[in-house]
Design brief:
single chain, 348 residues, alpha/beta, Rossmann fold, Arc Repressor Mutant, subunit A, 6-stranded mixed sheet, 8 strands, 49% helix, 9% strand, globular
Length: 348
């Protein structure tokens, strides 16, 4: 049984929700040009910026799309971090007895998507051995199921996505040869905060979708979507989760309409919805706790900042299972900078 998730393709031939605003005009033009090519595409963008939707849109416009493969499988590579063997079983398949628990033969995703597109999300989390095997498959040299010597072939179009910047991918997160193969076409998906002028339109579309699920009328949606106080809140927020932040805020706002809340209560609901995300917790820190430590002794500020920096370095190493390249990427710094910071930490 596959552990891939799925992406709905029922509306993918039209402009998807996340791409129906001006910010995506250039993106869609590029995808339109690339659609007929079998060459791999790499989508770069923050979480919630619409990468999966764009991948489905590209697939729907390309010859690498089979109607019978709907919903379209999406492989989230982050689930393989603790077990690289699972990645190879999922992608290439295995034969009975290939490893403990392999009780029967299994067809991998590459065989399943023959004639279609394969979408690998969170591609930066896939292990090096699997990367090398994928290079061979993409180049047409074939692949083997785990435990099998037979070389198999699949004609598929590879689409990958990650929230890591390209500099980090080149800095050691991905094997250089693998990156060269998957990044023939590169599309950077902008964050919502980079396109503030398009935010009202994006908000109305997200809100309409959420409101429709709750059974609200179109007139109610128009009233909510045009609320200037709410739009001001959205415009001031960094929206680190992009469309996910909008959707969460929309759910909070719609809930107030179901109980006839006041306008102020609606505004507060949106505020709460937005601040459940990173911007409300991580970016703000806990000011009350910091204030309680004041006044500091001489040199106390530097000591606390240094302690905080050390904590981030240790947390990154734990997060990456002591893989320094991944730890550096998790902190948004180059491997060389991380190495020097780590050496300083260990020498102190």
């Amino acid at each position: 049984m596959s552990i891939a998730t799925t992406a709905s393709t029922t509306a993918s031939s039209s402009i998807p929700l996340e791409c129906a605003v001006r910010r995506c005009a250039t993106l869609l033009a590029k995808l339109e040009r690339w659609a007929a090519s079998p060459a791999p595409v790499l989508l770069l963008g923050e979480r919630g910026s619409g990468k999966t939707t764009l991948a489905a849109w590209l697939r729907a416009r390309s010859p690498y799309s089979r109607a019978e493969l709907d919903p379209w499988p999406v492989v989230v590579c982050g689930q393989f971090q603790a077990n690289p063997q699972l990645a190879q079983s999922e992608l290439f398949g295995h034969v009975k007895g290939a490893f403990t628990g392999a009780s029967k033969d299994r067809v991998g995703m590459l065989e399943q998507v023959d004639g279609d597109s394969l979408f690998l999300d969170e591609i930066a989390d896939i292990d090096r051995a699997t990367q090398r095997s994928l290079v061979a498959a993409v180049e047409g040299r074939g692949f083997r199921r785990l435990g099998d010597n037979q070389i198999r072939h699949s004609k598929f179009r590879l689409i990958c996505a990650t929230n890591r910047p390209l500099e980090q991918l080149r800095g050691g997160v991905l094997d250089e040869d693998f990156l060269d193969r998957i990044a023939v076409f590169i599309l950077r998906v902008p964050a919502l905060r980079e396109c503030r002028e398009d935010l009202p339109g994006a908000w109305v579309r997200v809100l309409s979708r959420v409101a429709a699920r709750a059974g609200l009328t179109e007139s109610a949606v128009e009233e909510l979507g045009g609320d200037h106080d709410v739009l001001a809140l959205l415009a001031e927020h960094p929206l680190p989760g992009n469309f996910r932040d909008l959707e969460r805020a929309a759910h909070h706002l719609v809930s107030t309409m179901l109980v006839n809340a006041t306008r102020e209560q609606r505004k507060q609901a949106v505020h709460e919805g937005l601040n459940l995300g990173d911007a409300g917790v991580l970016h703000r820190l806990d000011v009350a706790q910091l204030r309680a430590q004041l006044p500091l002794e001489a040199g106390g500020y530097e000591v606390r900042v240094e302690s905080y920096r050390r904590g981030w370095l240790r947390a990154a190493l734990e997060y990456a299972n002591d893989n320094k390249a991944r730890a550096a990427a998790a902190l948004g710094m180059s491997p060389s900078t991380f190495k020097s910071q780590l050496e300083k930490l260990r020498s102190d």
